Amino acid sequence: MNFETFKSLVRISKEDICRELFLENKNSIKIKKEGVAIKNLVTIFDAALQLSNKKGFFAMSLRDLSAATGLSMGALYSYFNSKEELLDMLQRQGRTVITRVIVDQLKGIDDPWERMKRAIQTHLYLTEVMQSWFYFAYMETKNLKKNEHKLAIEAELFTENIFSEIIEQGINKGVFADVSQELTAAAIKAMLQDWYLKRWKYAGRQVSVDDYARFLMDFVSAFLLPVNR
Amino acid sequence: MNFETFKSLVRISKEDICRELFLENKNSIKIKKEGVAIKNLVTIFDAALQLSNKKGFFAMSLRDLSAATGLSMGALYSYFNSKEELLDMLQRQGRTVITRVIVDQLKGIDDPWERMKRAIQTHLYLTEVMQSWFYFAYMETKNLKKNEHKLAIEAELFTENIFSEIIEQGINKGVFADVSQELTAAAIKAMLQDWYLKRWKYAGRQVSVDDYARFLMDFVSAFLLPVNR
DNA sequence: CAAAAAAGAGCGAGCGTTCGTTTTTTATGA
DNA sequence: TCATAAAAAACGAACGCTCGCTCTTTTTTG
Fold first, then answer.
1. Which helix (H) or strand (E) holds B98?
2. Nearest-nucleotide field for B63 (CA, C1')
3. Mean pLDDT of chain B
4. In Å, what is the separation between the CA of B199 and the C1' of C24?
5. Does residue A184 sit at the B interface (CB-CB below 8 Å)?
6. Can you tell me the distance from the alpha carbon of B34 to that of A165, in angstroms, rounded to the nearest whole number?
7. CA angle, B58 as apex, A98 and A43 as ends, to 5°?
């Protein structure tokens, strides 16, 4: 599997994501027409992610967002009740997609090393498709209020746990070396996150997401596979 | 070398760091008495780091900082000319220390693997001693204006380059496997940074910095040392 | 007592938010 | 098909509040 294959298998559209959000947030979104709501939500979220990733969510004002979207201040408030709620919605936007796609992509794969490879690839390709969201989610998590913050931390630990379980499985089957599952999963996660957090650096060096995936799988295999040790 | 040894060898005091800043910023710091200036700079920086790391530099107001330090608004402005300058000073605060300590700790070590181990340990122990600064520097870099932003990026790449050069040296001496220097150095850096960026997670799991150092050296050795491969 | 340090009230600007008004869209009836 | 009325969407001025910052007065230090 490579990035091009992934993209054609897993079609993630902003419209679908915003439709889900629209249906879940009828109380906050005062727009009746689905088509209008979705079109504008996409515009709002794109602009908000871009502005926030540049200067931070708090430093972005709603006047900035108004200018960037071409919607008035009053119109913006048809889509969320407060700036804080916008933050929550932005954070929530991608979370269910991620979980669903990773779990889906691992279905039917039993071999631990194949699972590990697929998990690494899936994570990287997802973050490539939705880089601005991942960057935003990482950087702004600490601004979330209690319950949303808890959910964000859980999502962080959930994907790490996917790796941890693959490692456990591999060790139990005698396929992987006997390593610390938690620390290894955390280290893999750190390297996966580096991809989207420092996209500027890898882009500057012309490292493709497939290059990076290959490198990571190589790096991880040296540690996990006894054949290599 | 372990963390306790490091701490007694490398004494980093906030007072020394603030003294350097005081001497370099006579234009911005209107206080004449070195003792008073340094004492209050330490207080200001500690409070600013804590507040910023909790809610973001922009979301922290100077009234927040005033309350946290016990200094009035007017007194705060004796120490910096603007909030933006405070950001610059905070970012600059630790940069020279880091460079100096890493370079010092590598002196007299020729063996590539020994250098690698020392570099990993030094980086981790430094970030353990100055965790709040490192977290702040990582999270707030994007808010810096042009020249300061450039310096921060350079510092980021400088430490990564230390690892890259060690790898190059190891490959040239036939000690290390033939791997991508840049990607390997970046991966090591990512794992090192994870330590201070997700300090909450490792603390919750009761992983000591020495545990983490040992784990990282093991992980990296599996990839770099042909004996392992 | 003089110099240095600190306090704190208040300024103008910008912020998030509200709400009455205007514009656009849509459905209906002739 | 066209005109009209109602519903929906959008606008934008203004409110109260907080912000960064200034500057005169007060307090502390040596």
1. helix B95-106
2. D19
3. 93
4. 53
5. yes
6. 56
7. 45
pLDDT value at residue B95: 83
Question: Three-state SS for A1?
Answer: coil
Chain B residue with Cα closest to A216: B187
**A47 falls in which pLDDT band (50, 70, 90)?**
very high
Nucleotide with C1' nearest the A85 CA:
C16
- CA of B122: how far to CAs of B6, B74, B106, B157, B213, in Å? 8, 40, 9, 17, 9
Report CA(B12)–C1'(C8) in Å, whole number. 36
Q: Do B205 and A212 touch (CB under 8 A)?
A: no
The footprint of strand D (CB < 7 Å) covers A 30-33, 36-37, 40, 70-75, 77-78; B 33, 35, 60-64, 73-74, 77, 81-84
What whole-number distance in Å separates Cα of residue B31 and Cα of residue A176? 61
Per domain, the residue ranges of chain A are: 12-93, 94-228
Query: Considering only CA atoms, which of B167, B169, B170, B192 is closest in space to residue B180?
Result: B167
Q: B193 and A190 in contact by Cβ < 8 A?
A: yes
The domain at A94-228 falls in which architecture? Orthogonal Bundle (1.10)
Is residue A209 a contact partner of residue A125, using CB atoms and an 8 Å limit?
yes
> Roughly how many angstroms between the first and final C-alpha of chain B, as a whole number?
26
> Which chain B residues are closer than 8 Å to A208 by Cβ?
none
> What b-and-e string marks burial along B72-106, b requiring 16 or more CB atoms within 10 Å of the CB?
eeeebbbbbeebeebbbbbbbbbbebbeebbeebb
Give tens-digit pLDDT for A121-143.
999 999 999 999 999 999 998 88
| Gap between the Cα atoms of B93 and A13, Å rounded | 44
Helix (H, G, I), strand (E, B) or coil at A229: coil
Nucleotide in closest CA–C1' contact with A77: C17
For residue A107, the 8-state DSSP code is: T
Helix axes B62-69 and B34-55, enclosed angle (nearest 10): 120
Least confident of A97-101, B4-8, B106-110, B167-171: A97-101
Stretch B59-77: mean pLDDT = 96
